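Open question from group meeting: does this chain pack into something compact, or does most of it stay loose? Before anyone orders reagents, we agreed to write out a predicted structure and look at it together. Recording both the input and the output here so the notebook holds the full record.
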Amino acid sequence: MKFKLSKLGPGLLFAGAAIGVSHLVQSTRAGADYGWGLVWALLLINLFKYPFFQYGPRYAQATGETLLDGYYKMGKAYLWAYFFVNLGTMFTIQSAVTVVTAGLASQLFGITDDIVSWSLLITLFCALTLLIGRYQLLDKFIKIIMVTLAISSLLSVGVAFFKNEGALSFQQVFPEGSGLLFLIAFLGWMPAPLDISIWHSIWTLEKNKTQKNKTSLSESLFDFNVGYIATIFLAICFVGLGALVMYGTGTEFSNQGGAFADQLIQLYTANLGEAAYGLIAVAAFSTMLSTTITTLDASPRAMSKTIQLLFHKKKSYYLIWLLVLGLGTGAIFLFLLSEMGQLVQIATVLSFITAPLYAFLNYRLVLSDQMPKEHQPKIGLKVLSIIGLAVLTGFTLFYLLSL
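Structure tokens returned:
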């Protein structure tokens, strides 16, 4: 086990990227609005999405290639589609997660309440961390963040549980009316958009470059399972915090990152006491910082690999794309912050409607001739994949019809 623990890395980076807005915002709102009533939905969607996320490290370890290599071999059009979708969403997604992180930083550290200044500072900090340490430093940094997040979240739930004086109800519910749209969005972003499987395949190969002995498939899947279970556990923690602290208060949350951060921490503090302020603030800030730095690393890696494949180049464009993403994100903070809501909505829709496509491509890849037979998924995982693909397609069609 000690040997396997030393191989942990890409799975925790996956968790760091996944545990963000879907957990801090949507899981908390699920608990605030429905108590513990949507735990069934959280567990089911994580089950149905599991195969498609797992196929990222599975394919990378079995073939020595990223999912992007596989998409390219299936058809150049798939890679071009990924390039344009990612180009259209990466700046907005990076800006959105950074703004929430900045709002939490302003609450936690004080100094200034100017969200733009904090956003630029956090972007610069994350970019410098990646420039100086590359994957090795990110790998170490995310382990510290994830341990901090797990401990602070668990303690926060513990405090909320013992402070709670009301009767606990675990009755499961199925939302109706406008609540149905929230459920669809909750399921769509839990634990994360499916294109993170591409990032995971890239991180898996980067991890192998830092190892004297290549990570085996079983070790890579162990690493993935640790990260995936962590995302589920922490999602339940945030649902629990919302249920124990906010359920029944009638609180209307702001859609603005800074205002939401202030509401979140102040409401927790008011209900749990000033002593819980530090725990809540650290848990929330750790959640968003992990997402901010992993997304800032992953998108440039994915775009660099895409350019290499489309134009048959061997040169890495990671640093160029890191600079482009950093500058583009900064430009949004300075000039388009008032349009953030609309930009996020566009990015959300694009990520949501492409989920069945990524699921289909990943499933098709692991059953293709490119994948060694001995590493292809067993019958149980195949059946779960087919059910999951049907569920994701159904959610997407319902979402589009309800717009």
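Observations to bring back to the group:
The CA atoms of residues 106 and 113 lie 5 Å apart.
The mean pLDDT is 83.
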